[in-house]
Amino acid sequence: MTTTVAVLNQKGGVGKTTVALGLASAAQVAGVRTLVVDLDAQGSSSWALGLEVDDDTLTVSDAIAANRDGAALDAVVESGWGPPIDVLPAGRDLVERDTDIRAVDPAHRLRRALVGVTDPYELVLIDCAPSLGLTTHNALAAADLALLVVEPAAFSIRGVEAVTDTIDQAWSDLNDSLDIAGVVVNRVPPSSAEADLQLEALARLLGRRAVWTPHVPQRVAVNEAMGARESIHAHGWRGAEVADVFDQLLAKLRRTANRR
Ligand SMILES: Nc1ncnc2c1ncn2[C@@H]1O[C@H](COP(=O)(O)OP(=O)(O)O)[C@@H](O)[C@H]1O
Ligand SMILES: [Mg+2]
């Protein structure tokens, strides 16, 4: 059984890519066959997974444009991290898809493109763009689970309701098998009264059980590993603490998937 997870938030820089990559890193160590779908025109996860994307590279954008079942197959490649992590890369032309409102059934195009392609994988992680626009609707139409990423900061918590509204809308309009998996809290500072306050506000908003633990701490190793295009598990002792957090989050994600 394949579980497809949309990792999302409308804000940039909160850690969507970090969480998608951290889970992929834990999946690699656990031997869980995983496909990372880069759905952000910035291509951060494609890059961090070791890919070179140029104008000739087949990308998720081509797969969406094709509008046919299984169109993503030609664009999937093995990641630079090695097996069992594969990637459906993104290129800059993906932004054009977000304004492509004339297209027929524009929100289900990624779902169509992935038909059959995702079968060999236990886990498909869709790294969404910082938007609640058409590309993110495509992710939610294709997903079984939505996983929110937030920072323990007022600006981030205030945006959460817009994301949950979008997920509710997607559930009723696009995909009635979509569930909210929960919220991963990223970039938690060592000790901060302000962060604690914001975490309280988040738990009041969504319920305590929706907020996953452990939280991902703020650590330079996260940034370093991404810059070195390495998985956090391959980043040695400096990444060990964060790697352990992602092992636990992956275990929780797999339990959530198995309960469905
Ligand atoms: N827990 C963390 N600790 C330290 N740096 C982080 C952490 N999470 C994210 N970052 C850094 O913040 C930047 C933005 O994170 P990213 O995952 O790319 O966000 P998004 O995908 O939501 O735009 C990146 O440079 C990343 O390395
Ligand atoms: Mg990103």
Question: Could you please describe the fold and organization of this structure?
Answer:
This protein is 41% helix and 14% strand. The longest helix is centred in the C-terminal third of the chain and has 19 residues. A hairpin with a 6-residue loop joins strand 3 and strand 4. It is globular, with a radius of gyration of 17 Å. Helix 1 packs across helix 11. It is an alpha/beta fold and 260 residues long. It has one domain: 3-Layer(aba) Sandwich (Rossmann fold), CATH 3.40.50.300. Strands 3-4-2-5-1-6-7 form a 7-stranded mixed β-sheet, sandwiched between helices. Magnesium ion binds next to helix 1. The site of magnesium ion has 5 residues, from helix 1.
Summarize the structure.
By secondary structure, the protein is an alpha/beta fold.
Briefly note the structural class of the backbone.
Answer: alpha/beta
The main β sheet shows up as: 7 strands, mixed
Shape: globular
Q: Note the run of SSEs as H and E.
A: EHEHHEEHHEHEHHEHHH
Question: How many helices in DSSP terms?
Answer: 11
Low-confidence segments: none
CATH architecture: 3-Layer(aba) Sandwich
Write out the distinct hetero groups bound to the structure.
adenosine-5'-diphosphate, magnesium ion
CATH class: Alpha Beta
**Rg over CA atoms:** 17 Å
Strand order, biggest sheet?
3-4-2-5-1-6-7
- Number of domains as seen in the coordinates: 1
Percent strand equals 5-15%
Protein topology:
Blueprint: E1 3-8, H1 16-30, E2 34-39, H2 44-48, H3 60-66, E3 77-78, E4 85-88, H4 94-98, H5 109-114, E5 123-128, H6 134-142, E6 145-150, H7 154-158, H8 160-173, E7 179-185, H9 193-206, H10 220-227, H11 240-258
Parallel strand pairs: 1-5, 1-6, 2-4, 2-5, 6-7
Antiparallel strand pairs: 3-4
The structure holds adenosine-5'-diphosphate (ADP) and magnesium ion.
